[in-house]
Design a protein that fits this description.
12 strands; transcription (chains A, B); 6-stranded parallel sheet; 12 helices; about 350 residues; DNA-binding; about 15% strand; Rossmann fold; homodimer; 434 Repressor (Amino-terminal Domain); 4-stranded parallel sheet; DNA-binding (chains A, B)
Chain lengths: ~350, ~350
Amino acid sequence: MATKKKTERVTIRTVAEDAGVSVAAVSKVLRSAYGVSDALRAKVQASMAKLGYRPLAAARGMRGQTYTLGVLLSDISNPFFSDIMAGINAALERTEYQPLIGVSQSASSIELELIDAMQDRQMDGLILVAPRMKAADLDTVATRIPSVLIGHHLPGATLFDTVNDNDVLGANLVVKHLAGVGHRNIVFLSLQMPALDDVLITTQREIGYTTAMAECGLARYTQIVRADQTAREARTLARHLLQSRQRPEAIFCWTDFIALEVLSVATELGLSVPGDVAIVGYDNTRYCDMAQNSLTSVDQSGQLLGLQAARLLIERIKGREKAEHLVLTPRLVARSSSLKVATSVPGPAAA
Amino acid sequence: MATKKKTERVTIRTVAEDAGVSVAAVSKVLRSAYGVSDALRAKVQASMAKLGYRPLAAARGMRGQTYTLGVLLSDISNPFFSDIMAGINAALERTEYQPLIGVSQSASSIELELIDAMQDRQMDGLILVAPRMKAADLDTVATRIPSVLIGHHLPGATLFDTVNDNDVLGANLVVKHLAGVGHRNIVFLSLQMPALDDVLITTQREIGYTTAMAECGLARYTQIVRADQTAREARTLARHLLQSRQRPEAIFCWTDFIALEVLSVATELGLSVPGDVAIVGYDNTRYCDMAQNSLTSVDQSGQLLGLQAARLLIERIKGREKAEHLVLTPRLVARSSSLKVATSVPGPAAA
DNA sequence: CGTTCAACGTATACCGTTCTACATTATCGA
DNA sequence: TCGATAATGTAGAACGGTATACGTTGAACG
């Protein structure tokens, strides 16, 4: 009982001593490595349980793995990301891996710092959600740490895996739906980007929008406007659009949060939705289904995206070299914000 | 140039060699420890910059600090938490500390696992946001790792600091406001808890509600109903309340998200808000200000809470022993969801 | 009955820091 | 000029794991 020092930490050595085996044997059990008899394993596990031993991640990190995965989110306030996290957590539930989140606040400089920080902390793998950093930086990162990207279209990438929803199709569905209920002057409210880049989901959605408009014979109505992430700028832009002489018949927003702001501005201006203007969002977050919003949106199961990303990452950590690129299929959820007139047939309410 | 091994990692030794000093000297510079001349510091820093040296957290963790702080969130989908994170990030901006988030999904078992995981990873400090774990477990954690709790009322705690908003006052403001515009039958929609415990913010709000009702002479109208975190249960309960014979004149919800669900149900039932029923939320998240919601709420500056918590944590890591307990003051933001009749004077819209 | 070889264990170098204990100079007052 | 003291720098032992390189068995085989 009375050991010399007080509050002695339980290390692999303590366990070895208690079980009457070597340190290496304990380590083998821990890593479920080759060359351990059932008897020995049992003995060691008994000792570990008895002593309440927990391996120290820092020490493991010095030579092997840390069993920690880094998740890079640009902004936790977007409820879509919480779906992704739920999927990641579900996938890692029964594994030894622990996901830890870093928030980049949508700034590419912070993004890089954060990734460096994760690298310094010897993370075994990275899940990057809609990163904004340069392609070259991304490659650098991916060569050092197994990485999976969500919301980054680069099917030719060899250094990392990607998991995406088909954003071109998603935007396509929206335009077809709006055109189907008779709208022609459909504006796409997109995200302000430093440069148009095919890897970005917003660019993909712009492509889907433009293509679909052409396919519907509405090419001459094609109009893309862009605002940054802030509610403020989206509102200014929305106000401008809604008060202009030829007010759009429908505004399709790149993400739900922006659509909700547009809905707010329309309401303030005394416009009826969808009577005066139809509004559509993207991501089908929980707010869409609330009756005061009843926002048509595109469902892209964030949960599934997260789950698959985590699965791919584990595979990659375990040694897979060949890149995989998953593309899931979106689904339109029509609600009353986009139906033509008072023929409004709202989708079934939740609960 | 051509060293033996390829892609040699830049360690403290590489730097020492390059600068022509000892390893210990470099370490001293890193830690800005005592006994370094300006000349030496300059030399070392030049080498570090030249070689792009970054200290390995795992190695530091073996001996000293990891410069990593753990943030425990129950659920990232609540936008209030993103405000808290923004505050934490702001406070740590210019420091060496890196915050990493773990999500417990509101389950106290996961909560404990997560804290163990953070402990295994040698986090220097913990910020726990509205934890659900038992007091004893909390004490155990706090004795091992410097901890600050947000949204946990325990002004007598000696092992950790707390940062809170005055929830009793917040609920008080709401009741006074509602009573002021003539409501009497005010129901409080609270959170289902395993047991009533004064440390919980919801209990505090219940107390504030009950007290204020009594103070307003409305004791006989006092009614508290409780639902769990899910939208489903909140909706069921809301439907029940709104369809009952004596429908409440006002429903005060413990958090915005629930209030928005209640608003949704009310809208579905064809009730006018605030004409038929007033609705009030808590946290003043971004959704409150949207015109379709225009939800009266209590602002408790999550940003400030996060900022203060991070500040206190750093102090504690640096050695402060005496516990500090901050209580901030909430502010009511009245919007049209709670005004008596068509005299509705909506608050100024954003932007 | 020797040889081979898989199965099981062990000893120990090593990972990249921190930090104590100590060595070597300057600085300076008497 | 001589300690005494402060200032600066170094050597090297930890920290707690991992994983390589071996040593020892015992069973199977020819």
